[in-house]
């Protein structure tokens, strides 16, 4: 059989196939375009099961260091950090330490009316909380220049401290730092 015979045989098979297509009734395919055939699906499933099986065998061969496994499961505890935090907490409970601690921020309310001082205090405390301060100082004066017998700002500051949920312990400074004209406050 030479090349010419092979070509003639192929040509005859092509003609038979085209005649069969014309004579066969046209069938409407309900298959979605580009969707895989049943054979393609079966082949994909075989390939997937082989790779998944291989992956599982490969994973089972891996070993993990027992120490790393324990650390992943239970984590670590920084004992030095815990110790430092507990010491800081015990310092904050010590009243003498708090009294001697320098304030992180200071506001002076001299010359303001009651309403102006209240508004300034609200914004000042919010700002100090945002910055993470622990102790602030409010300078309100002794009320020497107030009209009437009672100092206006001193009583207003006391009321403000009592009503604000973010403010904790407070006291007047010693004489060298303003005495009864200034109040220090701890932030919660």
What keyword list fits this structure?
4-stranded mixed sheet; 11% strand; alpha+beta; 188 residues
Report on the structure:
56% of the residues lie in helices and 11% in strands. The protein has a four-stranded mixed β-sheet with strand order 1-2-4-3, with helices on one face. The chain is built from seven helices and four strands, in the order H-H-H-H-H-E-H-E-H-E-E. The longest helix is centred in the N-terminal third of the chain and has 24 residues, at 38-61. Helix 6 links the parallel strand 1 and strand 2. The protein is elongated.
The total beta strand count reads: 4
Category by helix and strand content: alpha+beta
The largest pleated sheet is described as: 4 strands, mixed
Percent of residues in β-strands: 5-15%
Q: Spatial order of the strands in the main sheet?
A: 1-2-4-3
Describe what is shown at a glance.
With 188 residues, this protein is an alpha+beta fold.
Summarize the topology.
Layout: H1 3-23, H2 38-61, H3 66-74, H4 79-93, H5 95-100, E1 105-108, H6 114-131, E2 135-139, H7 152-163, E3 167-172, E4 182-187
Parallel strand pairs: 1-2
Antiparallel strand pairs: 2-4, 3-4
